[in-house]
Amino acid sequence: MSFKQLTPLFSVSGQIAEEDVATAARSGFRALIDCRPDGEEAGQASFADVSAWAAKHGLKAFHTPVTPSDVKDADVEKFAGALDAAEGPVLGYCKSGKRAATLWALSQAGKLDAAAILGAARGAGMDLSAIAPRLTACGSGSGGEQKTYDVVIVGGGSGGIAAAASLLKRRPSLSIAIVEPADVHYYQPGFTLVGAGVFEPETTKRPMASVMPDKANWIKQSVASFNPESNELALADGSILRYRALIVSPGIKLDWEAIPGLVETLGENGVTSNYRYDLAPRTHALAQGLKRGRALFTQPPMPIKCAGAPQKAMYLSCDTWRRNGALDNIEVEFHNAGAVLFGVPAYVPALMQYVERYDIKLCFESKLVAVDGKRRVATFEQKDAEGKATGVEREFDMLHAVPPQRAPDFIAKSPLAGETGFVSVAPDTLQHTRYPNVFGLGDAIGTTNAKTAAAARKQAPVVAINVLATLDGKKPHVGYDGYGSCPLTVERGKIVLAEFGYGGKLLPSFPKWMIDGTKPSRMAWFLKDRMLPPIYWRCMLKGREWLCDRHMIEENAEPASK
């Protein structure tokens, strides 16, 4: 059973069974709302059954039964009360999910704009246009708080904070809101070195409040829906934000649930991942403790954030085993869903030297599809030369798993999304392809550059300058060249510093005599270990744009057409 998200706090589905209740609990739902009368259909689980299943899995359960043609105001009030009592994400269900969506929509009348309500439902595949007059009659939008800003930024990660700082550096008078529900900001490039025992985990996180620019307004909320035609977005609490310009940078979704069995065994049974703050220290502990056996490292299909990170964990683990004399007793396999070791050929020879040094078995077009933690067995879908896929099981003593990654649901289901689900922007100006006052940066945009913090560092000033041009009635006039950087940690103390742009063009930041990115370098290690963290915290997030050259795409920016 698939759950269709309308907002970060409410999703719908068709009739559920006990296994769906278990999945809902694992997915973070706190309550279920049954919108069907009992006995409506033969074989339908009763509310009593569902309530018992919910209690078993720690969920609340509510019953607000309605028939499709008769949804009364009293039913809506009862449903709204259940939402309030849930204290967290809610799954509403009926035969198809539409009744649950209808009750939710009517419960939001007077809180959210009617267009935002209908847009959220439409994003979940529910056409509720038939109740549009009722939403309007209820005064939809009239009771929700509305604020207008020069710029609204969605996302308080590296891209969003850097863009805000860059804007305020150039024009301190701007009114800026940053929409971000998280309390903590992470320096995610540091997770690799946490997984190698080089960094302490605590050095890679800071309170979100400490990185927010002083002149920006932090709105600690989630986005429910976008309405770019009206220059507004709706928040999970029902308030509406209006903007003159919108910057979208919410990051990428790590889809751990897409691999059956993985969530249940993460952190146990030899399974770890540097893609999670709490698990990166376990990678180091497992590597130190493993003396013999088989270690598997996986990489999912693109796109993913930092495409080199899966193999960085492998090289540093191998170096640990080499140093403690265990490498000869450990069978190392790299299962890459792609067809090549690294997407830019210039860096492959240096990486292959380490593949050979560590005696790593490369398994291309091999995708992790299931994990049985108790048996310590990973299942891969492997393609042969003719492209035929077969399932292959591999026992393991250590598994470093990287989840598939995709656009956040509230982006993929919004008017801002392109065909891939990511925000559709021009690759050079980073301006939205349909809405001129909307821009995007970071991992959530649908461009072909590598999704790295270094990319966001280069994108932030481009977005800031082009947003200001747009606010001034001019066309965007600076461009982003697709720059991304991937410091490939091939051993403790040496890095292959991959720097490249669109089409795999090499874009080195330093002369060859200082750092030759195609060869392992101690200077590159010094850069990542000692220089990049303070550059991140003290420069990038503060609007100090070190090594952020950009190119003009027009000699003179003409006023934009009205």
UniProtKB/TrEMBL annotation:
| Positions of the FAD/NAD(P)-binding domain | 149-265
* Gene3D superfamilies, sorted: FAD/NAD(P)-binding domain, Protein tyrosine phosphatase superfamily
Which domain of life does this protein belong to?
Bacteria
What CDD domains does the database record attribute to this sequence?
A: PTP-bact (cd14503)
InterPro entries membership: BLH_phosphatase-like, FAD/NAD-bd_sf, FAD/NAD-binding_dom, Prot-tyrosine_phosphatase-like, Sulphide_quinone_reductase
Annotated ranges, domain Beta-lactamase hydrolase-like protein phosphatase-like: 3-110
Q: What is this protein called?
A: Bifunctional protein tyrosine phosphatase family protein/NAD(P)/FAD-dependent oxidoreductase
What is the originating organism of this protein? Methylocystis borbori
